[in-house]
Amino acid sequence: MRVLHTSDWHVGKAIRGRSRAAEHRAVLAEIAGIAERESADLVVVAGDLFDSASPTPEAERIVYRALLDLAAGGRPVVVVAGNHDSAQRLGAVAPLSQASGIHVASAIRPAGDGGVLEVDAGGEVAQVALLPFPSQRYVVTADLLLSGDAADAHAEYADRVVRIVRALTDRFRAGTVNVVAAHLMVMGGEMGGGERGAHTVFDYWVPATAFPASVQYVALGHLHRPQHLPGPAPLHYCGSPLQLDFGETANEPGVNL
User: Most buried in the list 21, 85, 92, 228, measured by CB within 10 Å?
Assistant: First the structure.
């Protein structure tokens, strides 16, 4: 199975008032071309499609056109919300997206209720655990939803995220391609320069050991620099596909295939 992993588009971002719309159209069209040329069986978009929780109509047109292009020919596309995205807005269009083969995860859900997506891709069955960005306030509710245990109301953020990952991946099978799509700050990751500081501080760090060895690929979003992290499972940040500000000159924009 060939998986194309992209994230952190940040469509709608401007630099000193200068629109990046033309750049975003060009780079997203290039990504769709890569998916077609390389015969990708599955596309994972790991969050931060938009730069703002209140995107302009132009930004929405660019993003939804790109998702439709990626899904061309019946290719399944999986999207998780990032910290810059509005989970409510993405959730509102999810029924329309679903009809086009674009699976949008705007909230953390139990594995048997949409938290794990099973798709047929390239003749193989993939199980994709979906982990949109969990804010500190939201992760408490999500943890209780998945575990049903309210005993430890003051568990640390990382502990709760680890429990959520384990609950989502617990039923992964040996005969399927097992993927996690997550928008997270994993410990040891190197920032690319343009991330939102409040969501990359120590309070949001999650250990690489959160992901069990039954996972064959962890598609991460949040950090703008492409990198591989050591852990029980292969953990990859694909980085942003374009330089987002002046602090990212050392990054090499791209996608993972």
Answer: 85
